[in-house]
Amino acid sequence: MLDIRNLQVSVDGKAILKGIDLQVKAGEVHAIMGPNGSGKSTLVQLLAGREGYAARADAVLYQGAELLGMAAEERARQGIFLAFQYPVEIPGVANVYFLKAACNAIRRHRNLPELDAIDFLALIRSRLKLLGMDESLLYRPVNAGFSGGEKKRNEILQMAVLEPTLALLDESDSGLDIDALKVVAGGINALRSPQRAIVLVTHYQRLLDYVVPDRVHVLADGRIARSGDRQLAIELERTGYADTPAGHPAPPASRA
Amino acid sequence: MATESMQLEALISREYQHGFSTTLETDSVPIGLSEGVIRLISAKKEEPEFMLEWRLQAYRHWLTMSEPEWSTVHHPAIDYQAISYYSAPKARRDGPSSLADVDPELLRTYEKLGVPLEEREILSGVAVDAVFDSISVATTFKEKLGELGIIFCSFSEAVREQPELLKHYLGSVVPYTDNYFASLNSAVFSDGSFCYIPPGVHCPMELSTYFRINAINTGQFERTLIIADRDSYVSYLEGCTAPMRDENQLHAAVVELIALDNAQIRYATVQNWYPGDKEGKGGIYNFVTKRGECRGDNSKISWTQVETGSAITWKYPSVILKGDNSQGEFHSVALTNHYQQADTGTKMIHLGKNTRSNIVAKGISAGHGHNAYRGLVKMAKSAVGARNYSQCDSLLLGDKCAAHTFPYIEVKHPSARVEHEATTSRIGQEQLFYCQSRGLSAEDAVSIIVNGFCKEVFQELPMEFAVEAQKLLGVSLEGSIG
Ligand SMILES: Nc1ncnc2c1ncn2[C@@H]1O[C@H](COP(=O)(O)OP(=O)(O)OP(=O)(O)O)[C@@H](O)[C@H]1O
Ligand SMILES: [Mg+2]
Predict the structure, then answer these.
(1) Nearest 5°: CA angle at B318, between B314 and B324?
(2) Mutational pocket test of ligand 1: of A17, A38, A200, the residue with most ligand atoms within 8 Å of the beta carbon
(3) pTM listed for this prediction
């Protein structure tokens, strides 16, 4: 599903990712951990199509197609979804209106009929129920005035409505109370299927108790320093990142 | 960052969609301004003596005045002798007394503009008084309104048929001495709309005027007078377009509103005059005086404006809150793109006790656009317990545009309270990326963000016009992204 080879990213001349290799297959859940500032958000935002990075790689393939150079909305329409670490506020735009516009933009791309207000409301109500969210949230402006936890849940709600093929979740568990964590985990697990893949960025192995990953990677100083199974996360919880090796310098990437 | 500004660039540079002109036989007076020209205009309109006298007094006063220089707008000097002050499509017979008499070419123009001019449009519930250049071509729904005692007609007709109402109210809110452009208008005004709602009548439909400047080198000086008598209600909408021309055209209108005891007037404008091209060439100079007076107790006047057109907009729809407990409102969206300039805002003059005013001004600047909010809130000595709340928000697209806010506050009674809040924000890469990562095109993203920004104002518009305004905003910004 996702095949990243020797990805190097810099911003304003500062190298942030220094040669990432990562393969995620359909049906898998990968967790990415690592110290603050190691480049986790940079990686997932780049994959979602954020502008402003200088990126080079041998390949960044999603379902066999090269991602670098593809517009963000195009990636979204082809099934990539990013739950933001810091969801963005859009004052004056009702959450439900925003989601319906997004949902229909994606459906148009897939040659599906657009949902009218009634069908859409039925869809979103079922997702709200799944996430134990209050309907009033639909009519408030997107993320404006939402609590930290509400913002995170709102991201998961969007994911549940848009049903992506590749979900990139950037610290969707941060700042959640224990009940909310279970609900969010439930939302993520509901999306799991043999056709889909999920990449979770997290600092806490607690989330992984609920969403059990196939692989765990540690990103340190712009490189994947260690990879392993669930046990790695449990071990890190005990030891921290102090023992994580720095990794080797990457060879120059062939594609810009 | 580079991509963002490129996208904005593209979105900003969409073409004006009402830029066609119509070839009609016209009846114009020669260019230039003199007492002779004013007499000619008055004669052509078969006006009673009092009207001519008033025009001449205004003209003589205007000659003593000079153009205001205090606003932020810049333009080359206007040659008032190079303008034709009267241009009317030639009537087939004597004058268009019914739709059948109106030039079919003219009707086609209105069709292109989407103005519901024919009776079949009755379903849309809009009564339209359409003003093409200088004369009012047709007024729909007149009879139906007449049954309720509502007078809704062209200004010229009111001059001839309602002289008593006119003598009583004309110039009573905006005197001909008021300001340079209002004086000019008072001298040469060509046509416009007149509306009188009798006591206790709730006007059952939206009344609407549609203005269009067609003839070349023509100024449009329309005048609107709306009187809501005791316990009455009226909602009024004005829309404007003009063809694309390289020369700048002058539009200097005057609107007067009068609300008596317990009456309410809602006045909404969607202004889409030709803004000039991408380099700032051509476009309408929109210098307008709009003022309402809450003359009676418990009366209410609200202005809502969506200003997307014109090369230069200079207007301050205002309310004089004279009656006790009266209320004034101003809701505004002003968008400037390319080289457009807007200096707009409001004046709320509190005279009566416990008067209330509320101001919501939203400025959107894109391209090299300049947008200034200028607002005066004045609490007179008599304004015991008066309150004002003002909120001015600016949204910037790109980094070559500008927004300014100039609030003026005068409080003469200690019990009066004035609150002012202002914000400036920029559509950032963050918001755009967030929308795009949900599958929305950059263009739709900007449109959604901008419409969200304007929501409070659009809510004040009648439903069908709110939809229109949203589209217009989209069109005015489209092309800057993608
Ligand atoms: N636009 C930018 N300009 C300059 N530096 C940037 C930019 N974006 C990211 N960085 C830097 O890149 C590094 C990686 O940031 P990133 O947000 O990817 O870290 P992270 O692993 O997600 O951290 P956290 O765990 O705190 O969320 C940081 O040092 C950050 O300051
Ligand atoms: Mg991060």
Answers:
(1) 175
(2) A38
(3) 0.76
